[in-house]
Specification:
The complex is a heterodimer of chains A (329) and B (267).
Chain A lengths: L6 E5 L1 E2 L2 E2 L1 H17 L3 E7 L5 H7 L4 E6 L8 H15 L3 E5 L2 H13 L4 E5 L1 E5 L2 E8 L4 E7 L4 E5 L16 E4 L12 E7 L5 H5 L2 E5 L6 H14 L2 E4 L1 H5 L20 E5 L5 H4 L7 E6 L12 E4 L2 H16 L1
Parallel strand pairs in A: 1-4, 1-6, 4-5, 5-12, 6-11, 7-11, 14-15, 14-16, 16-17, 17-18
Antiparallel strand pairs in A: 2-3, 8-9, 9-10
Helix pairs in contact in A: 3-4, 6-9
Chain B lengths: L1 E5 L2 E2 L11 E2 L4 E2 L8 E2 L1 H17 L3 E7 L5 H10 L3 E5 L9 H15 L4 E5 L10 H9 L3 E11 L2 E8 L2 E8 L2 E5 L11 H7 L4 E4 L12 H4 L2 E7 L8 E2 L5 H14 L4
Parallel strand pairs in B: 1-6, 1-8, 6-7, 7-13, 8-12, 9-12
Antiparallel strand pairs in B: 2-5, 3-4, 9-10, 10-11
The chains are: A alpha/beta (329), B alpha/beta (267).
């Protein structure tokens, strides 16, 4: 990463649109490249990509390599790897970044080993110091953070959502769109996606919600989550949950916030009956304001919270719903 | 069917953040006095899936594979008492202070040398480093397919049918064997060690191999082979001051909170 730092962003596209995390990665890539006069490359594989390439340019990419082919309709590492490997071979970037999503977490280690290098996963802070790319990531279940660098090139890393500012969209931004043919031999794809089961609950809304009402073990069951749902409705927000609550089946897994679930960064995060284990806080620490409601005054969640109530959430939730509804009138 | 489960010994991940310490100079976690290493919970779930597969098929062998010093012995014992058939430990000072790359390299070499392995299971990530790299790395080094974040595996007609956890549900993936599968916590509860298995565990074979026995050169392993440099390890500081609401009744407490949030234009 000495002079010109060339970065390669692997973009993830859903229904013809790059996911929000792509824009955050481009924001980071742009900031790193602009410091050193480097170039931001992006690569995208998919089927029915529409204007995804143009969108990536408008959000900060200089060059976008696009392969639009039916075989890429559903993500599989076996299918993605050969073409991405070839793209990276052409671009020869100093660093490759991939979103820390179920796709990126599956793809990045495979790609790293195929390139003979290593990967830092789930990075929440990235900077260049003395010509060295320093990657910060949570570890020990969010209790600690480590800063790592890579001796091998390119350095791969996956980027945690909601940690970097996206570049504002500029529709007239210049960039080069390269449409390519796939080099993939379909016979080399050993896995097959037989079925996709979408969770009925609208978990995606959780990630974009301005207000999140999250419940944990203190909800004591499905009834607690019904109240949380009513509270979220009153606030125009979405319901989240700790892993404990999801593992107990009180809430669908798509609602899980934390290290092994979703990362959210709402304006307001109301943690109810959640003790605040580091693994959970890792998923909501970037919320602007955290409010905690817990019977245990020593619960760690209060250490991250601006406002707190020590008390029984089953009494407090109906009271909160009443007060908020009164406020709306 | 021959299954290998890769397991890692880690400091107890359940210890509270308030007593978690690191030695910043040594760039290591400070182990709490009186605590011992445990099997990384995701690896325990990987072993649970292996046991369920063996139960369903009514045949098969399960080998535990670990890399590490003597501290791993207690987790090997634990895995054997849960029902694994035998264990292979990779023990050699040259493995020390490696990274995910050198770890995957050593484990892949061991699996290759064992021969005839149909399924390699690992946890989705180790609960200390939280990297989630080694499983996929083994697959790449051995040229095998990999499926990550499995919540269930069924073996039918020599194929693996894997339910993979996604953010918004799951997908069913078919993979041929041999393959690497990493296992997620959606597997659910793991079994307890039975008295019968614990009694048997003491007599189960545990083998140790060195780097030389794996045919690996010391320059490819440990610190010398690592691609990743640990620059810093620290506990992040958090300086939020919590304002506790005051009130006699739930209504009063709720009213005060709503007032604060409204004044701060949060609601």
């Amino acid at each position: 990463m000495k002079n010109a730092s060339n970065l390669f962003v692997v973009a993830e596209v859903v229904d013809g649109h790059p996911v929000g995390l792509c824009h955050e990665m481009l924001g980071l890539a742009r900031a790193l490249a602009d410091r050193s006069g480097g170039t931001v490359h992006a690569g995208v594989l998919g089927s029915g990509l529409g204007g995804a390439g143009e969108d990536l340019i408008a959000h900060g990419a200089d060059t976008v390599r696009v392969i639009d082919a039916p075989i890429f309709a559903q993500y599989q590492a076996d299918a993605w790897l050969p073409d991405l490997h070839a793209m990276i071979g052409q671009v020869r970037p100093d660093a490759v970044m991939i979103g820390h999503t179920p796709l990126g977490a599956d793809l990045a280690p495979r790609l790293a080993f195929r390139l003979g290098t290593n990967v830092a996963t789930g990075c929440n802070h990235v900077r260049v110091e003395g010509g060295k790319l320093l990657l910060t990531r949570p570890c020990y279940g969010g209790k600690a953070e480590e800063v790592v660098s890579m001796l091998s090139s390119p350095a791969l890393f996956t980027v945690k959502p909601k940690c970097f500012q996206p570049c504002p969209k500029q529709d007239n931004r210049g960039g080069e769109l390269v449409r390519m043919d796939s080099i993939l031999d379909p016979a080399s794809v050993r896995t097959k996606v037989r079925e996709v089961r979408r969770d009925a609950s609208d978990g995606a809304r959780l990630e974009s919600a301005r207000i999140v009402v999250a419940g944990g073990g203190g909800m004591k069951g499905v009834r607690g989550f019904e109240l949380a749902g009513r509270l979220a409705d009153a606030l125009g927000g979405a319901v989240g949950a700790s892993r404990v609550a999801c593992d107990l089946g009180w809430c669908p897994p798509s609602r899980q916030v934390g290290l092994s679930g979703k990362t959210v960064a709402p304006e307001l995060y109301i943690a109810i009956g959640i003790s605040g284990a580091a693994q959970h806080v890792a998923g909501c620490a970037n919320a602007k304001t955290i409010v905690a409601i817990n019977t245990d005054p020593d619960a760690p969640i209060f250490r991250y919270s601006k406002y707190g109530i020590v008390g029984d959430c089953h009494q407090l939730m109906p009271a909160l719903i009443d007060k908020i509804e009164a406020l709306r009138k | 069917m021959k299954i290998v489960v890769c397991v890692k010994a880690i400091p107890d991940p359940e210890i509270a953040a308030s007593i978690f310490r690191v030695d910043e100079a040594a760039k290591r976690m400070v182990p709490l006095p009186g605590t011992r290493s445990v099997m990384s919970p995701f690896d325990e779930q990987a072993l649970e899936l292996a046991l369920r597969i063996r139960d369903a098929l009514g045949e098969g062998s399960i080998t535990l594979l670990t890399l590490g010093a003597e501290t791993t012995r207690s987790i090997v014992k634990h895995g054997l008492s849960l029902g694994a058939d035998d264990a292979l430990m990779l023990v050699d000072p040259v493995f020390d202070d490696g990274d995910s790359y050198t770890t995957a390299r050593a484990l892949a070499a061991a699996i290759q040398r064992m021969g005839g392995v149909d399924l390699i299971l690992t946890g989705r990530q180790a609960a200390d480093g939280d990297c989630g790299v080694v499983g996929c790395g083994i697959a790449e080094l051995l040229g095998l397919p990999a499926v990550t974040f499995a919540m269930d595996i069924v073996v039918t007609d020599g194929m693996l049918v894997i339910e993979r956890a996604l953010g918004e549900g799951s997908e069913i993936i078919e993979a041929p064997m041999p393959a690497v599968v990493t296992v997620s916590h959606e597997v659910g509860k793991v079994r307890y060690a039975s008295l019968r298995e614990t009694m048997k565990a003491a007599r189960k074979p545990v083998t140790a191999w060195s780097a030389e026995q794996l045919g690996l050169d010391a320059s490819e392993l440990g610190t010398r082979g690592a691609r990743r440099v640990l620059e810093r390890l620290y506990v992040p500081v958090n300086d939020v001051q919590c304002e506790y609401m005051v009130g006699e009744t739930p209504e009063e407490l709720a009213g005060n909170l709503v007032e604060r949030l409204h004044a701060a234009r949060l609601i």
